Amino acid sequence: MTFQNKVNLKKKMKKSLGSLLILTAIGAGGLVQVKVVNADEQVSMKDGTILHAWCWSFNTIKDNMQAIKDAGYTSVQTSPINTVVAGEGGNKSLKNWYYQYQPTIYKIGNYQLGTEEEFKEMNRVADQYGIKIIVDAVLNHTTSDYNQISQEIKNIPNWTHGNTLISDWHNRYDVTQNALLTLYDWNTQNEYVQQYLLSYLKQAVADGADGFRYDAAKHIELPGEYGSNFWNVILNNGSEFQYGEILQDDVSNDAGYGKLMSITASNYGQKIRSALKDRHISAGNLMNYQVSGVDAANLVTWVESHDNYANDDQESTWMNDSDIRLGWAMITARAKGTPLFFSRPVGGGNGTRFPGQSQIGDAGSNLYKDATVTAVNKFHNAMVGESEYLRNPGGDEQVAMIERGTKGAVIVNLVDGDKQINSETNLADGTYTDKVSGRQFNVSNGRITGSVPSRSAVVLYDDQASQAAQVSVDGYKEGDNSISKATEVTLKAKNADSATYKLGNGQEVAYKDGDKVTVGEGLEAGQSTTLTLTATGADGQSTTKTYTFTMKDPSAETNIYFQNPDNWSDVYVYMYSAKDNKLLGAWPGTKMTKEASGRYSITVPASYAEEGVKVIFTNNQGSQYPQNEGFDFKAEGLYSKAGLMPDVPAGKTRVTFDNPGGWDSANAYLYYGNPVQYPLGVWPGTQMTKDDAGNFYLDLPEEYADVNAKIIFNQPGTSNQFPYSDGFNLVKSGNYNKDGLK
User: Fold this and answer.
1) pLDDT confidence of residue 61
2) 261 neighbors 243 (Cβ within 8 angstroms)
3) In terms of CB atoms within 10 Å, which of 170, 458, 477, 529 comes out highest?
4) What is the pTM (predicted TM-score) of this model?
5) Which residues are catalytic?
6) In whole angstroms, what is the distance from residue 557 CA to residue 526 CA?
7) Residue 576 — pLDDT band, cuts 50, 70, 90?
8) How far is CA 616 from CA 262, 355, 587, 640, in A?
């Protein structure tokens, strides 16, 4: 939810120029050909499409699940689900929608959407249809009515920053530490607040939620800002997909939030609406997501949001259904971004926000399941992994064509009157039938011809993907896997008329997609068991996969190491997983031990390697690496400020040298013995490898550390060296700076 319109802070749309032909490749080095999935198969939440079921009740969403599935959506976003202010005595006029964003307590269920039991039942039905549920989470603030805030919240020590209004929208501190519209701002630096809100999110996940949208996310400081680690804690709630509402401006720090989670591309939505109003767009402008420093795969895109539509400035209310169809076709046909379709009120649009034909709790207009919207949704799902190529056929900016590899294309005609197409194309030769109108388009020798109807989008692709049966164990690879305790796993089956599993030499048991089974019960350390999955498709063909699970010693331990490139006086490590957000205690975690080599180490359970653990290093003085989501845990892993260092080869030891400042490269010169031996060659020695943090390392035979060797680090082509006299003593895993061992 945004309140910027109410303080006259409307954003100006940035102008951008683009070329006629734009090529975007997945990966480096050109077009990448990847397997195309069946449009009816479940794709990941990030790769799919979201229906924003704005103001729909839990029961309404449940009752429309079949229609949502048939329309090609993979996720549904709810309105906020916790207890909120009952504005105007609980009146359910859609004009009272904003009370959903005034929490009074973080318990699931409210008068607008339904009870917690109804929420659970909606999630249960969603699972049956393969639909994921995203909850709109309001974690920045509570209501502005202090008397309605629950005593449970007020009992949290120092729970709020207060409700002093934001006065300077260009000041990052003001925007993150003060209040929107006098709504009481959570003290998000407070550990008790963090745990209270995290508990709410975890309960939503336990009730069946799959993801979260974080309202007003840019108003909550980033890790390391103003002494906060809020997002490090909050994002570890066990959900599959999370994104933040970041309404872009000069202090929104899009890149910072984009490293934590997906974020909204609000400026791109403005660009699309402008194109719909002007009825033309260049391929270059369509290509530009208007976000710097964020991979487009981590963006949530829209034609309009509920704020654009429902706030007092009515930024998008002018659009009609035709505008929405065309805008949706342009953003959803693209290779990156997770498109979100806002469900308007029944009869809404053409300048009317709330026509009174529906109320809070009802379904929105039927546009969400319109034939064009549905066809584009299914195209989007079917083209996962395909590259994209954007062009204006024949240079006509009233027509936009989004091609996906050689497999398919969506062509959008923004104006009245049919458009005759005779254009270059990357599509494979053949005849393509529009999934909406049934019109045919011909491709031959790299040119496409056909006619696009007035103010329409045509959707062209071959949706007859392979129907072979598929089986898998979610999160595990076929073949060898390690576990440290009896583990519940999820069985997957697609395109299967029947599917069975067999544990070890046991009986075959029938299962359906999503069923769970426990492996490893009764196994001792070192023992293994197998899980065999078999499925038969409609074509009568069977497929079988076997997974082996070996029990590790649950008491086994391992170490991880940190180079401490910034020479912190103390180093702490904070570890968390989806199941436990503070494995080594609350922030900042546990103090690491400094070794003689200068690096820091800590001993932890070896099972962390199989539990999706994340690692953050900090000095507990405001500095940390990384700044957002932790590094992946790796047993015996050596970390720098940029993450895991490459593995040390067997029989070698790694020495590191902190860049003293401005060195593009470094050599290591080594000598020992009498007569003197130069194992790395005569001066200046051997070039070291520069890591991602700009420091240097070199892997040496371990025996060099046992012969009283000396080492000198020097800058190629200069007289700079450290030390300037006798070399530093070489030790195993030595961690050096210009003054010697750290």
Assistant:
1) 98
2) yes
3) 458
4) 0.66
5) 215, 245
6) 15
7) confident
8) 20, 51, 10, 11
